[in-house]
Structure formats: structure tokens, C-alpha cells
Design brief:
By secondary structure, the chain is α/β, with parallel strands linked by helices. Helices cover 30% and strands 22% of the residues. Strands 9-8-7-10-6-11-12-13-14-15-16 form an eleven-stranded mixed beta sheet, sandwiched between helices. Strands 17-18-23-19-20-22-21 form a seven-stranded mixed beta sheet, with helices on both faces. Strands 1-5-4-3-2 form a five-stranded mixed beta sheet. α4 packs across α10 and α11 packs parallel to α12.
Length: 507
């Protein structure tokens, strides 16, 4: 495609580029620049693409900018536009041939539950004999190809590239997590969806959004008509969430609800039982009853199951496919994922990293038969400081023993993060030294900044019928200290600690 066709409709401020050039590639990564490439010189928080503009021009690229061009570009090879994000979206969809048009698109947004819903949708799609692609927090994947996820929702260039790969490899349906960052930064602005889902909204990401209202406004964008493919596109809204109620006035073509409290919701429950290792429920969808049996646990997962079931029903799934797809899913990576052991301890690793998600997970665990609940958790650095004491308060509601530790401190002092958390510890809890911590007492907490040591301590003191929750990282296989990322897995650390305990014969 000619450069002139690529930029048609964009508000070009000025340019000295050759519009007759056949565009060979598009990128914002200077290392990927080739001859006849469009290089987007994005100004980021750490790097400025303009620093690489001269090299890009020497390689035969056209540099696309939204600022005054430096002298080196005035010799030739740039296009200046008013809105570089709009340009990225438009050029990306044109370059990759509008890939989303050839696949059914399902978008999921909300604070909690997005990843679990994508796994449920993927499992149901498999039962429908559909090839599915997933874009989300855990990874990007289709068929047998798995890619690391740098962001929950990738930037427009990477997003369209991945969607084009999926299309070209026979994917029928894509389910993707649509984050508030992705919406606010317009990463998804070019997409059209067949189904969109709203899970819930609670405090998170207030280091990025100024307040909850701005956070909600970002989420609300997905439910505007501009994101719908056609008049049959449907939105599934959690009507039990106060922000979900507010979304019902949006103009997405078909606004449907799911609820555990309202019998008039499009998806609701007649009966349900959340057990030790399962969820059984009679779900009503469009006035028809579907009995489901799931290996997931917790009331929050029943909401996720209702959302996925409703979304796939309006996408053409039969009840048998929905039932079997739900039953097939044994677990979601890093979401209440079990760590097997020989000590009768129910050890679970979960991604919960906000007060609401911790409360949901711990509430679910508290309903199970147990002796004590031991919780290991921390809070991420360079993120919303205000949620740290709130997280502690949520943990105190359902835990008997608490170990506060580090969780991606980044450039903050880990001890300061822990101090922020400690401010929210309930007065009912007594602080003790790590060396004196044991599981015979209740209402105690300690601080172990080293996350590996914290997990090992929790494993060593846990007893038969205890529940041990290791929260915050879930599926993540790294920890960020300063600006360095190193390998770290909560699951592997817990397995190592249980192995060590077995080796030394601890009871």
C-alpha cells in the first residue's frame, strides 16, 4: 500500500515525505526499522523516538511525528500529524487489513475477573470447535503459540499485528482483556466488538487515573456504540455492581445483564452451591435453565461463569458446549492455583493485588473447612499508595495469621511500602517477630521483606487443614527490584519450600 493511502484522512500538519512510497513495515521500535518503513517517533516516559529519527531516515524510513521536527528531519523523510495515536490506529488497521473483521471479537473489562473469563470463553469456544485467540494479562496466545504479554492490552501496532497473525492462522474468535489503560490511551480505538463484558469496578490503578470517576470513565468507553460491530452486538453487564448499574444507560446496541440478586437479569441463578472444590449452579439464560458444574471455587468465580456463559450464548453456543467448556477448565493460572503438598495444607497462589480482590478471594476461602487462614502478601511499588492500608484491612477481615512481604517494589523502598501496608492492620492483630511466628496462635502478623523467605516461613508453620494464601503475583514469573527484573515464581517458591519441609521431616 502506498504511503498516501496509509495516511489518507489523517490531519497532516506538514511533511516532506515521498507519498508514493510503498510501505513495507510499520513500527515504533527503532531496532525494527527497515527501508520503506513508517517509524512512529513516540515520546515515552523513558525514551524519545526522535532520538532515533536520523538513523531511521538513513535506513530509508519515513518518520511520523506529532511535534516540531528536528533539523535532521527537515532534509527529508517525515510526516507531522496532529494526533499520533490516531495515526497509529488508522495506519495499523490499514497495514494489517482490518484483521478483526474476519473474527468474532469478545472484549472483557473491569477490575477483577477478566483473565478468568477469557479462560472460560476459550474453553467453551474449544467445545464449539472454534479456534480461539486470547489477549490478556497472563499471555497472548492462539493455537499452540504463546507470547509474553508486555501489557494487558497491547499498543495499536502490536495489537493489529497479533490479530493479523491470528486471522492468518485460522482463528475464529478472539477474546481479549480491555484494560482501563488501553481504553484511556486509545490502544483499542480501531476495534469493533461482537460482545463486551463488564465485571466490576473497585479501587485500582489510581496511580494512573486521578480518581475512581476517571477510572470509571475509561471503562465506560468500551460500552459506547462506536465499539460495536453492528446492531446485534451485545454487552453483558454485572448488574450487582454499582458501576455496572451506571453503564446500563450506555448506547451499545444490546444491553444485557447478569446478576445473583435480580431474577429479571438476562443471566441469573435459580440455585447455586459453592463448595470446597467446585461450583454447582442452575443458571438461567434468556429464560432457559443451564445446570453447570465447575472446578473453580468462590462466589466471584460464579459471577465469572455467568458472564462467560451469557457471552457465549449470544455468540451462538449451545448449552451442551457451555456446560462442557465450563467443566473442562480445571484452573486458571495464578488464580487460586493449588500447590500440591503432603501436609494437608490447602496452599493457593492468587493474583489478588487490591483490597477488593483480596477480600473476594479470602471470603471464598473462609467458607471452606479449615483450621487457620495464613496470608502472605505485599503491594507493588511506584503504584497507588492509597490502596496499601486498604489491602491490609481486607486481609485482616478473613485471615488468622498474616505475613507482610515485598511484591515488585520497583524504585520504592520495600520497607516504606510495608510501612504503608502496616498502617491498615486491624488493632485486633498483634505484631510478632518472624522467628516467633507459629500457627497455634491467631490474630498475629509479622514482617518478612524477602518474599522467598516469607513464603518459606508460611509453608513451614502451616498445619493440616490450614489454608495458605500467597497473594499478589499469581501467574507472574518475575519480581521487579529497582529497575531490574529477575525470575521469581510464587508457585515454584512454595513447591521448593514444601520440598524442603519434606526433606527435613517437618510435620
Amino acid at each position: 500500500m502506498k504511503l498516501s493511502q496509509m495516511i489518507d484522512g489523517l490531519k497532516v500538519v506538514d511533511s516532506n515525505a515521498n507519498f508514493d512510497m510503498d510501505v513495507s513495515s510499520i513500527t515504533k521500535d527503532s531496532r525494527e526499522v527497515t527501508n520503506s518503513c513508517i517509524f512512529f517517533a513516540i515520546k515515552g516516559s523513558k525514551n524519545d523516538g526522535l532520538n532515533y529519527a536520523e538513523d531511521a531516515v538513513k535506513k530509508g524510513a519515513v518518520v511520523l511525528i506529532d511535534r516540531e521536527p528536528p533539523q535532521v528531519l527537515k532534509k527529508g523523510g517525515y510526516i507531522r500529524v496532529e494526533d499520533i495515536t490516531e495515526a497509529m490506529n488508522l495506519i495499523a488497521v490499514r497495514f494489517y487489513g482490518y484483521p478483526f473483521r474476519d473474527m468474532k471479537m469478545v472484549g472483557v473489562t473491569g477490575t477483577n475477573g477478566k483473565s478468568s473469563i477469557t479462560y472460560l470463553v476459550e474453553s467453551i469456544a474449544r467445545r464449539m470447535n472454534l479456534s480461539s485467540g486470547v489477549i490478556g494479562t497472563i499471555n497472548y496466545r492462539y493455537n499452540n503459540r504463546i507470547m509474553q504479554a508486555p501489557n494487558t492490552t497491547p499498543d495499536p501496532l502490536l495489537l493489529m499485528k497479533i490479530l493479523a497473525e491470528m486471522r492468518d492462522n485460522g482463528v475464529d474468535m478472539v477474546v481479549m482483556e480491555v484494560s482501563s489503560h488501553g481504553l484511556a490511551l486509545r490502544r483499542t480505538a480501531a476495534l469493533k466488538f461482537d460482545v463486551v463484558i463488564f465485571t466490576n469496578l473497585s479501587r485500582d490503578h489510581l496511580d494512573f487515573h486521578r480518581d475512581m470517576e476517571e477510572y470509571f470513565e475509561a471503562k465506560r468507553l468500551l460500552f459506547s456504540k462506536g465499539y460495536s460491530r453492528d446492531d446485534n452486538s451485545a454487552a453483558l453487564i454485572n448488574a450487582d455492581d454499582e458501576y455496572g448499574e451506571r453503564l446500563l444507560s450506555m448506547n451499545f446496541p444490546r444491553m444485557l445483564t447478569y446478576s445473583l440478586k435480580r431474577d429479571d437479569a438476562f443471566v441469573h441463578c435459580k440455585n447455586y452451591e459453592v463448595g470446597e472444590d467446585s461450583i454447582k449452579a442452575d443458571i438461567v439464560i434468556d429464560d432457559k435453565v443451564l445446570s453447570i458444574d465447575s472446578h473453580l471455587i468462590g462466589l466471584h468465580n460464579l459471577y465469572n461463569i455467568m458472564a462467560a456463559s451469557g457471552a457465549m450464548y449470544v455468540s451462538g453456543a449451545k448449552f451442551d458446549d457451555i456446560y462442557n467448556g465450563i467443566y473442562d477448565l480445571r484452573y486458571v493460572p495464578g488464580r487460586l492455583q493449588k500447590v500440591e503438598n503432603d501436609f494437608g495444607v490447602r496452599c493457593l497462589v492468587d493474583y489478588a493485588h487490591s483490597d477488593d480482590s483480596l477480600r473476594n478471594v479470602l471470603k471464598a476461602l473462609s467458607s471452606l473447612n479449615h483450621r487457620h487462614i495464613i496470608t502472605v502478601f505485599g503491594a507493588g511499588g511506584d503504584r497507588d499508595r492509597g490502596k496499601r492500608p486498604l489491602m491490609a484491612g481486607a486481609v485482616c477481615e478473613y485471615s488468622d495469621i498474616i505475613i507482610i512481604t515485598s511484591d515488585n517494589p520497583r524504585t520504592e523502598d520495600p520497607l516504606q511500602i510495608i510501612a504503608d501496608i502496616e498502617r491498615g492492620i486491624d488493632v485486633r492483630f498483634r505484631k510478632t517477630e518472624a522467628g516467633r511466628l507459629n500457627s497455634e496462635e491467631k490474630g498475629i502478623y509479622t514482617i518478612i521483606p524477602d518474599r522467598s523467605e516469607a513464603i518459606e516461613k508460611a509453608v513451614m508453620i502451616s498445619k493440616d487443614k490450614d489454608i495458605l494464601l500467597i497473594a499478589g503475583k499469581g501467574h507472574e514469573d518475575y519480581i521487579i527490584e529497582g529497575t531490574q527484573k529477575r525470575y521469581f515464581s510464587d508457585i515454584e517458591e512454595a513447591e521448593r519450600a514444601f520440598g524442603k519441609r519434606s526433606k527435613y521431616g517437618a510435620n
